[in-house]
Amino acid sequence: MADSYDQEVVREERAAGEPVRPVAPVSRAYSSRTSVYREGGYNYRAVQAVWWIVGFIDVLIAIRFILKLFGANPAPFVRFIYDVTWPLVAPFHGIFNTSQVGVSVFETESLVAIAIYTLIGWGIVSLVRIMTRPRSTTTVVD
């Protein structure tokens, strides 16, 4: 949709008594720019790798949370999960109080760790996208 200032109408002046009538609009030379981006032009493999690692860490911590919540017996698999995930959860230990009812433990540091690692992954993915985005191809048409 053209705005009123996009077209100029030139009026021709006539002698007194003759009506003023419009002349054909003056055409302007417009230039247009076209930017071409490839879909997923950033480093898609790096983004996939970061999200895979973050997802793997979050799943391990979620398994830890569920095992603690249901009061799992210290079987070899449970001990393995606790040992593997302790270094990931340890920085968040003591932020909130841990609730325990019987053998069930509601471990809030696991939930905080999942949230923080997801935010860190999002930040890394954003940085990868910014650093590896394609340069635009600009075409000027007169």
Structure, explained:
With 142 residues, the chain is mainly alpha-helical. It has one domain. Helices cover 46% and strands 11% of the residues. It is built from 3 helices and 4 strands, in the order βααββαβ. The chain has a two-stranded antiparallel ribbon. The chain has a two-stranded antiparallel sheet with strand order 2-3. Strand 2 and strand 3 form a beta hairpin. The longest helix has 26 residues. The protein starts with 31 loop residues before the first strand and ends with a strand.
Concise structural overview:
This protein is mainly alpha-helical and 142 residues long.
Sheet bearing the most strands, described?
Answer: 2 strands, antiparallel
Q: Portion of residues in helices? A: 40-55%
Low-confidence stretches: 1-10
- Our estimate of the beta-strand percent is 5-15%
Gross morphology is elongated
What structural class should be given to the helix and strand makeup?
mainly alpha
Number of strands: 4
Strand order of the largest sheet: 1-4
What's the quaternary structure here? Answer: single chain
Note the gap between the termini.
Answer: 20 Å
Number of domains: 1
Task: Identify the notable features of this structure and list them briefly.
4 strands; disordered N terminus; two-stranded antiparallel sheet; 142 residues; 3 helices; two-stranded antiparallel ribbon; elongated
